[in-house]
Amino acid sequence: MGPTAKNDFWWSNSATRWLLGGSARNHLECTDTVYRDSSNSPKTAVAHLFLFSSVAMKYILVTGGVISGIGKGIIASSVGTILKSCGLHVTAIKIDPYINIDAGTFSPYEHGEVFVLDDGGEVDLDLGNYERFLDIRLTKDNNLTTGKIYQSVINKERRGDYLGKTVQVVPHITDAIQEWVMRQAIVPVDDDGVEPQICVIELGGTVGDIESMPFIEAFRQFQFKVKRENFCNIHVSLVPQPSATGEQKTKPTQNSIRELRGLGLSPDLIMCRCSSPLQNSVKEKISMFCHVEPEQVICVVDVTSIYRVPLLLQDQGVMGYFCKRLELPVETRPRKMLTKWKEMSDRSDRLLEQCSIALVGKYTKFTDSYASVIKALEHSALAISHKLEIKYIDSADLEPNTLQEEPVKYHEAWQKLCSSDGILVPGGFGVRGTEGKIHAINWARKQKKPFLGVCLGMQLAVCEFARNVLEWEDANSTEFDPETKYPVVIDMPEHNPGQMGGTMRLGKRRTIFKSTNSILRRLYGDVDHVDERHRHRFEVNPEMKEPFEAKGFHFVGQDVEGERMEVIELDDHPYFIGVQATYRRAAVCLHGIHTVIAVEAAVRTQTLQSLKFPPSHKIKSEIETGESEDEHLLKWSVMNIRNNLPVH
After folding, report:
1. What highest taxon heads this organism's lineage (predicted)?
2. Is the torsion defined by CA of 306, 310, 315, 316 positive or negative?
3. Could you tell me if 179 and 148 are in contact, meaning their C-beta atoms sit under 8 angstroms apart?
């Protein structure tokens, strides 16, 4: 045993470690002990010592070259998946080199959607991939930005923590990066509370970018600090195949690797993104010029679904390489988890029956703006064995102004909407396109099309109902019309209009179901409450809810205090639901969006002939005054479908 440089305790270098004090999550033995300080003088302490079987934390760094958006996030998630399939506890960290503190103030056109975490963190969408692939719960500190690092270092400097030293990028910024990674890597992310054994770190951007230089330098130092057997670098590169020649080109990858090696990092695995399988001669060429063995060159070809990527990596022996390179004491054969992934991927390729969902939003030109919603729709369609077709509709194209200016675009948008089996209106900010969304909601309500409104989508459903059913023509959100006579949506008291970043109602909040007849309650398994993630500044005006309830527009979910309206449902409609929450992760999204598709399938498959209608004499006796027989049958079929929704 020998002393450490950072404290006065002696540590064992074997596979077991003695820890003085604290709490360990892996099982161990408690006892009184005698320990020694660095002067080798014995000291008696009554302390809890935990002896636990441990392997030092393993770090896998994923970098990228040639172009951004090459798929580092999916590859990092897939690497974590195959490691977790072998029984290891895996966490993930995303590093974004921009100076923003977080992603909360980004336009969706900049980096895609802003993903919201349980603790209210507004983070990069890649953390959504990590949570979906690995079934973990991350925190805001799992997303590290240049802004966060510089803010923490400057705060320390102001407190005098650096004792008058000149604060520099090296060593102060690079040390702060390493400390952040090591601190966050041991935070439990699984439901069982066990500390992770492996941390997958994705470094955003491309190698050579000036803003990522401090991070590259930090990991150059880090690889020696944690020792070679505990650090591995995966470099993701592009192998283009120009249509003019059809030849796979390796020069971009060679240049990218040369740049990376010049900065002090040597890749252990080179993952080559390509449109067709990598030829053996190309793999050998990359191996020769990039100083790696041929088996360290991995082909990541375009596949039908991103959920095939873990299987692709597993088939090329990636897990076996990790076991040797990182000295992992696990079996390399795939476990039950990966087998289920294969079954899911195979099933998704065999789907025949199709359903279409119209996604009516402001940012439809960039699909990453709605990444979580799209993934949830895909999972929902798979759950009911349907192939999903998403029809992206720019909400502004549904507005009357477009009819005057661009009639072709207007009619195409309405044709897409009317031919869809269900309608989804997601969240957003700003007035542009809101009237088009209200028109789509109005059509869904009148035509009894399955509808789901999320966040702003729910608020606009309230506005639409107020205008067209309650006949409050001026009804609106104060976000769009502060002087409206009927402010059915208002800003929240805690909203700070003077500062945009981090001032919304963020994170996991509890919703209490107020009705036992709620469709959404049944889909959640007939529970009393659910905990979902939120991200909004405005809310439904609680003082104006009574007229809505009287007309069959029910606020079936509310917050714990009963002051905030969380879930809406409409009577006499197969599925008309709005939720104020965003989605925690794909497994929970199924409860919300799955029903849109499930009801759509029910509406299409249960024709009037197949429904079990009551005898004609009973129909006539139940028809209300002024109601036709066809209208009564439609009302009856709606009730039939509502009562036979699937329960999860």
Report:
1. Eukaryota
2. positive
3. no
Q: For residue 424, which of 378, 467, 470 has the smallest C-alpha distance?
A: 378
Residue 9: left (phi > 0), alpha (psi -120 to 50), or beta? beta
371-383 vs 586-605: helix crossing angle, rounded to 10: 50
Residue-wise DSSP of 190-255: STT-PPPSEEEEEE-S-TT-GGGHHHHHHHHHHHHHS-GGGEEEEEEEE----TTT-PPP-HHHHH
Q: What's the Cα-to-Cα distance from 485 to each of 57, 488, 493, 594, rounded to whole Å?
A: 60, 9, 20, 37
Distance CA 83, CA 87 (A): 7
Cα 122 to the center of its chain, rounded Å? 11
Burial class (CB in 10 A: 0-12, 13-18, 19+), 255: middle
Q: Which amino acid is at 114?
A: V
For the chain, how big is the Rg over CA atoms in Å?
A: 28
- Which residue stretches of 263-406 are H helix? 280-290, 309-315, 318-325, 336-349, 371-383, 400-405
Residue 534 CA to residue 557 CA, distance in Å, equals 14
Lookup: tokens for 22: 């604290």
Q: Tokens at residue 369, please?
A: 């703006």
Global confidence as pTM: 0.81
H or E element, residue 150: helix 146-159
Please compute the mean of the pLDDT values over residues 619-643 and round it to a whole number.
46
Contacts of residues 273-276 at CB distance under 8 Å and 24 or more positions apart, as own/partner, are: 273/70, 273/71, 273/236, 273/237, 273/238, 273/239, 273/300, 274/238, 274/239, 274/241, 274/248, 274/299, 274/300, 274/301, 274/302, 275/241, 275/301, 275/302, 276/241, 276/248, 276/301
Q: CA–CA separation, 443 vs 596, rounded Å?
A: 16
Chain segment 282-309, per-residue pLDDT in tens: 999 999 999 999 999 999 999 988 889 9
CA–CA dist 575, 449 (Å, integer): 7
Please state whether beta strands 122-123 and 451-454 pair in parallel, antiparallel, or not at all (unpaired): unpaired
Name residues whose C-beta falls within 8 Å of residue 241's C-beta, 6 or more positions apart in sequence: 247, 248, 249, 274, 275, 276
Q: Can you tell me the distance from the alpha carbon of 77 to that of 115, in angstroms, rounded to the nearest whole number?
A: 16
Residue 33 pLDDT exceeds 50? no
Contacts 24+ apart (CB under 8 A), 600-609: 600/355, 600/357, 600/421, 600/422, 600/450, 601/353, 601/355, 601/384, 601/386, 602/574, 602/641, 602/644, 602/645, 603/421, 603/450, 603/574, 603/641, 604/355, 604/421, 606/637, 606/640, 606/641, 608/633, 608/637
């030293």: which residue's tokens? 165
Residue-wise pLDDT tens digits, 102-134: 888 888 888 888 888 888 888 988 899 999 899
pLDDT number for residue 55: 62
| Number of other residues whose CB lies within 10 A of the CB of residue 560 | 11
Place of tokens 């897939």: 78
